[in-house]
Task: structure prediction
Amino acid sequence: MDRALKLKLSIVAFIFAISAYFYKALYFQADRAVYSYDTKLLFITAFCFGIIFSAAIYNFALAWYMKSREHLFYALTQSFTLLFLALLDSLNIKPFDELFGFKSLFWFDFSQLLMLLFTMLFIKAFLYRYIRRELDFLFKGILYAIGIDAVISLIFGRVFIFKLIPIFVPIWLILSEANRLCPKERRDIAFYYLLYGWGVVLFIVAIEYIGFVDFTGLVFPWLHLALSIDAIILSLALSYKFKLQEDERRKQKSILLQRSRLASMGEMISTIAHQWRQPLNYLSFALMNINKHCSDATAKETIKDAQKQLQYMSKTIENFRNFYNPSKEKATFSVAKACENLLHLVGDTMPHISLEVVRDFTLYGNQNEFEQALLNIINNAKEALQVHNPTQAKIIITVNALTVSVKDNGGGIDEKIIDKIFEPYFSTKGDSDGIGLYIAKTIIERAFKGELSAQNRDKGAEFVMRFEER
Result:
């Protein structure tokens, strides 16, 4: 346990001790309503009830259709929030004391326990994406305390632990630790929605708890407003998190689609290689036989060139078969050699492509995956050249000390979309699925721990792969 957590737990213990000293005041409850709302305040309160009720129904529906524990826990949190507020108003505020007609100190306390229980379960499920095990100790401690207090309330009719420790304190403890422990690279809008949504509630609940209304005399449904704002913000957080999960599913689907395509191509090329091998062998033996019985020097030279072409065809089909049926074995390979291998495959269809090696370097990983990423970038450059059709089309691959750049003179990338080109399914071409550059970036970053970026330069686009020295 580090120093920051020890300090926070000491604050909780101090609050418990102070509350225990004033426990009689905490358990005092007036026998009649002490505040009165006019028509305007009644309307605001009813509006807040409507928001919380809508959030509960909406999340119950999502929990049913999506089988989501997060939405279920949040819907139950909102349901018991409604019960808590109704009991609070019935006990303290006119005309709700007559409208609701439900005055129960036991259910008032027990509804707070249930609200805290499902809040903890919701926050735990929500934070699993950001923090896995770091807060388990705190969650277990709070959930055990809730269970003990529930037993006490069932036996004695009143809660004990969370009367001395207000329910907003454990929520503050969990969220403050989440804010401290969650790495910045894992955070997103949904995470900040959770922090800020509960931050508003905790602030208002805290100042009301210390007697803000009694001190100022300003009667207003602050708590109702805070909890309704929280319902809206956390619903947005859940919706945004659902969007992130959908985006992740789409990305995984893109990767599976790409692998499926490569596998299909590999099977097809393997079939072609099998069908070609026997005719190529036959032609090779036939040329050897002709060469054996031929005495003409010119004819022998022609036969030699023909045998070279047959060997080239055999090697080419084998290279394609290996390219589209890559093994997952990792090894250290020369980046320049990998680029040369790829150029042997695409050189005939791209006569304007060239390779410049300033300083070669090695990478550890699957060479075929690197070549596939490079091929996707080259194909993108090729399409740009076909659209703009410059006078002297060119694609230059440059290998230079932990960087590989692919530069073309195809007019460059529109500045309005340059930040989106690596997103899945984004394409300016109607017949493209828009996953080529996304796949390239995924391979470079995940498989090789590198970085892939794009910029406009010299009337063209330049894609740069940067790698770390190992």
Remarks:
- Strands lie at 35-36, 93-94, 331-334, 353-359, 362-365, 395-400, 403-408, 451-456, 461-466.
- The first strand starts at residue 35 and ends at 36.
